[in-house]
Amino acid sequence: MHYYQSAYLGMHFLWWCFWLILWVGFFSLLTPMPRRSLQKARETPKEILLRRLASGEISEQEFESRLSIIKKEIVAH
What are phi and psi of 17, to 5 degrees? Predict the structure, then answer.
């Protein structure tokens, strides 16, 4: 009789694992992927400066100054 109890407990554990994997898979499909971080990684330095200028974070003079620095770095490499 001890044999049947251990077999039952083993199967019970496997069923818990099955349902856990199923639920994790289900909720991972429902969770949206963070695309904003991927988009920021693809922005060029000029696009970042343009966005900051448009939002008012930097002035036009600061934009021109930083853009000239970026252009100098590109020419140097």
Answer: -65, -45
